[in-house]
Amino acid sequence: MNPLPTLSLPLFDDPPIERGAGLGVLHARGMAGPDEPAAAPFFMPSPEELHPGLWRASQLGSACTAVTPSGFAELDAALPGGGWPHRVLTELLLPHPGLGEMRLLAPALAALATASGGDAPARHSVMLFEPPGALCGWALAQIGIDAGHWLVVRGRDVLWALEQALKSGHLGAALAWLPVGLKADALRRLQLAAQVHDGPVFVFREALAHSKPSVAPLRLLLAPAGIDALSVHLLKRRGPPLAEPLRLALPPVLSERQRERAETLAAAEAAVLQPALARRF
Question: Are 150 and 105 in contact (CB under 8 A)?
Fold first, then answer.
């Protein structure tokens, strides 16, 4: 019985394979033919050259839209673009209201109120949706905020009102205290509405929401760090995670006697909260 015929294929004498005519000739053997010029080296463009929304995992992402400086140099250095981003949600997670979140936002809100380029005061107005307490004009003036163009919105359909306000285009900044246990689809609708709003949007949520996924590109966990200091832990940003929380010095608003009493209370509160936060992160 005759054996089956065998077919011998050349392994090393094939002609070079050409690919990617638009990028130059790349040969399978990594070299040009005898009558051809050497192939041009292939350079991969940087992610930000391909699209402003791309970045390497080891670097801080650039801002896709405008930003408003926070007024804190160390915080701006950690935020993509160097400030609070516009057209996106910024989530501020806190264990309870009143630990310094308004003083954290005061420089940015004051800058928006005095920004030039608008012919109507409403363009630089601030709307607050379901704040946890009544506003104190004297205390706001102490930190440089003129609440003359501020508007407080309360009601059952506050999320709908917030969404419509963001779509209107007649708003400088929005601050919203969201209900506990907010569903992901509701947060997604707010993020879509924020994309057409040329200004910062701050949403306040409970600290326990840190373990839940969020569409917000920027998430910060706030904690007290003294009477006039705030601990800021960047949970999510366009860039690598921040290893250690920032400690920001806030502008003082209390008298000397009030400060002494508040320092005692803040130290007791920090002794309880800081170990709990350390165990979670």
Answer: no
160-182 pLDDT, tens digit per residue, is: 999 999 988 778 899 999 998 88
> CA–CA separation, 107 vs 68, rounded Å?
9
Chain-centroid distance, C-alpha 165: 20
Q: Which residue has the higher pLDDT, 37 or 163?
A: 163
pLDDT at 148: 80
Tell me the torsion sign for CA atoms 29, 34, 35, 37: positive
Q: How far apart, in whole angstroms, are the C-alpha atoms of residue 207 and residue 101?
A: 13
**CB proximity list for 32: less than 8 A, separation 6 or greater:** 25, 38, 39
pTM, two decimals, is: 0.71
Give the percent of the chain with pLDDT over 90: 40
Q: Which of residues 76 and 262 earns the better pLDDT score?
A: 76
For the chain, list the domains and their CATH numbers.
67-280 (3.40.50.300)
* pLDDT the model gives residue 2: 54
Strand partners of residue 247? 231
